Amino acid sequence: MNLTNMAYPGIEVRGSTIRVAFQYRGIRCRETLRLSPTPSNLKQAARLRDEILQKIDIDAFDYVQYFPQSKRLGKLGILTTSAAPTFLSGMQPHLLK
Hints:
Layout: E1 2-4, E2 11-14, E3 17-24, E4 27-33, H1 39-57, H2 63-66, H3 72-75, H4 87-95
Antiparallel strand pairs: 1-2, 2-3, 3-4
């Protein structure tokens, strides 16, 4: 069951976890935090959301830094460093000749 926490806009209680909701690049994003929905964790999640919104406003938000395992990264067209090709990996076939 999803419950929106009225004291903290954009923070939802989802079972035994907390979900943070925000808009990024015109896309609605919801990320689950593995925190139990205690009053102090809800407050912490609200602070995190505020920080994310501030960084989005100044174009300094790095999705990977906050949510490195997110399934949404691909939908946003964001490559993680492990998935991004490197110069060396691109040159390796030529070096082996």
